[in-house]
Amino acid sequence: MTIQLNHTIVPSRDKKAGATFLAGILGLPEPEPFGPFLGVRTSNDVTLDYLDAAEVPSLHLAFLVSEAEFDEIFGRITERGVPYWADPLHRRPGEINTNDGGRGVYFTDPDGHNLEILTRPYGSGG
User: Does the predicted TM-score (pTM) go above 0.90?
Assistant: First the structure.
Protein backbone atom coordinates (compact mmCIF):
# COMPACT_ATOMS: atom_id res chain seq x y z
CA MET A 1 0.00 0.00 0.00
CA THR A 2 1.30 3.46 -0.88
CA ILE A 3 -0.10 6.26 1.21
CA GLN A 4 0.95 9.84 0.55
CA LEU A 5 -0.15 13.12 2.03
CA ASN A 6 -1.85 15.12 -0.74
CA HIS A 7 -2.88 18.35 1.00
CA THR A 8 -3.80 19.90 4.30
CA ILE A 9 -5.77 23.01 5.16
CA VAL A 10 -3.90 25.80 6.93
CA PRO A 11 -6.28 28.24 8.65
CA SER A 12 -5.20 31.85 8.34
CA ARG A 13 -6.38 35.33 9.28
CA ASP A 14 -5.23 36.42 5.80
CA LYS A 15 -4.68 33.49 3.42
CA LYS A 16 -2.81 35.64 0.88
CA ALA A 17 -0.37 36.95 3.50
CA GLY A 18 0.20 33.49 5.01
CA ALA A 19 0.59 31.63 1.73
CA THR A 20 2.80 34.33 0.21
CA PHE A 21 5.03 34.38 3.31
CA LEU A 22 5.55 30.61 3.22
CA ALA A 23 6.16 30.40 -0.53
CA GLY A 24 8.59 33.33 -0.36
CA ILE A 25 10.60 32.02 2.59
CA LEU A 26 10.84 28.49 1.17
CA GLY A 27 11.53 29.68 -2.38
CA LEU A 28 8.47 27.90 -3.77
CA PRO A 29 6.25 28.99 -6.68
CA GLU A 30 3.57 31.62 -6.10
CA PRO A 31 0.47 30.30 -4.31
CA GLU A 32 -2.26 28.98 -6.62
CA PRO A 33 -5.97 29.76 -6.07
CA PHE A 34 -8.35 26.79 -5.91
CA GLY A 35 -11.90 27.44 -4.77
CA PRO A 36 -11.73 29.25 -1.42
CA PHE A 37 -8.09 28.18 -0.93
CA LEU A 38 -4.71 29.56 -1.83
CA GLY A 39 -2.35 26.59 -2.24
CA VAL A 40 1.38 26.43 -1.70
CA ARG A 41 2.75 23.42 -3.57
CA THR A 42 5.87 21.67 -2.27
CA SER A 43 8.31 19.72 -4.45
CA ASN A 44 6.66 16.41 -3.52
CA ASP A 45 3.28 17.73 -4.77
CA VAL A 46 1.75 18.21 -1.33
CA THR A 47 -0.24 21.43 -1.14
CA LEU A 48 -0.76 23.54 1.94
CA ASP A 49 -4.16 25.05 1.27
CA TYR A 50 -4.49 28.37 3.08
CA LEU A 51 -8.05 29.30 4.02
CA ASP A 52 -9.32 32.49 5.66
CA ALA A 53 -10.64 31.59 9.10
CA ALA A 54 -12.05 33.44 12.11
CA GLU A 55 -10.19 31.15 14.52
CA VAL A 56 -6.59 30.19 13.81
CA PRO A 57 -5.18 27.44 16.03
CA SER A 58 -1.41 27.23 15.95
CA LEU A 59 -0.07 24.47 13.69
CA HIS A 60 3.40 22.98 13.37
CA LEU A 61 4.64 22.40 9.82
CA ALA A 62 8.10 20.89 9.31
CA PHE A 63 9.94 20.85 5.98
CA LEU A 64 12.78 18.44 5.22
CA VAL A 65 15.30 20.28 3.04
CA SER A 66 18.78 19.68 1.65
CA GLU A 67 21.83 21.38 3.15
CA ALA A 68 21.95 23.83 0.21
CA GLU A 69 18.22 24.58 0.54
CA PHE A 70 18.67 25.14 4.28
CA ASP A 71 21.32 27.78 3.54
CA GLU A 72 19.05 29.51 1.01
CA ILE A 73 15.97 29.46 3.25
CA PHE A 74 17.90 30.48 6.35
CA GLY A 75 19.36 33.35 4.32
CA ARG A 76 15.85 34.58 3.51
CA ILE A 77 14.81 34.22 7.17
CA THR A 78 17.72 36.37 8.36
CA GLU A 79 17.47 38.87 5.47
CA ARG A 80 13.82 39.50 6.34
CA GLY A 81 14.53 39.78 10.06
CA VAL A 82 12.28 36.84 10.93
CA PRO A 83 13.00 35.67 14.50
CA TYR A 84 14.14 32.04 14.76
CA TRP A 85 14.85 29.45 17.42
CA ALA A 86 16.68 26.14 17.77
CA ASP A 87 13.75 24.48 19.56
CA PRO A 88 9.98 24.13 19.15
CA LEU A 89 9.21 25.91 22.43
CA HIS A 90 11.27 28.95 21.35
CA ARG A 91 13.59 28.84 24.36
CA ARG A 92 16.82 29.09 22.32
CA PRO A 93 16.47 32.28 20.25
CA GLY A 94 18.90 33.06 17.45
CA GLU A 95 20.31 29.51 17.38
CA ILE A 96 20.31 26.61 14.91
CA ASN A 97 20.02 23.06 16.28
CA THR A 98 22.22 20.18 15.13
CA ASN A 99 19.86 17.32 15.97
CA ASP A 100 20.70 13.96 14.36
CA GLY A 101 23.83 15.44 12.77
CA GLY A 102 21.86 17.89 10.63
CA ARG A 103 20.61 21.43 11.07
CA GLY A 104 17.21 22.72 12.04
CA VAL A 105 15.52 25.98 12.87
CA TYR A 106 12.01 27.08 13.91
CA PHE A 107 10.27 30.31 12.95
CA THR A 108 6.72 31.61 12.92
CA ASP A 109 4.51 32.85 10.11
CA PRO A 110 2.14 35.85 10.29
CA ASP A 111 -0.55 33.65 11.92
CA GLY A 112 1.78 32.25 14.57
CA HIS A 113 2.12 28.82 12.96
CA ASN A 114 5.35 27.20 14.15
CA LEU A 115 7.34 26.41 11.00
CA GLU A 116 10.50 24.32 10.90
CA ILE A 117 13.18 23.50 8.37
CA LEU A 118 15.47 20.54 9.02
CA THR A 119 18.12 18.70 7.04
CA ARG A 120 17.85 15.30 8.75
CA PRO A 121 14.68 13.52 9.89
CA TYR A 122 14.43 13.11 13.65
CA GLY A 123 15.73 9.74 14.78
CA SER A 124 17.97 9.33 11.73
CA GLY A 125 21.13 9.33 13.86
CA GLY A 126 24.28 11.30 13.51
Answer: yes
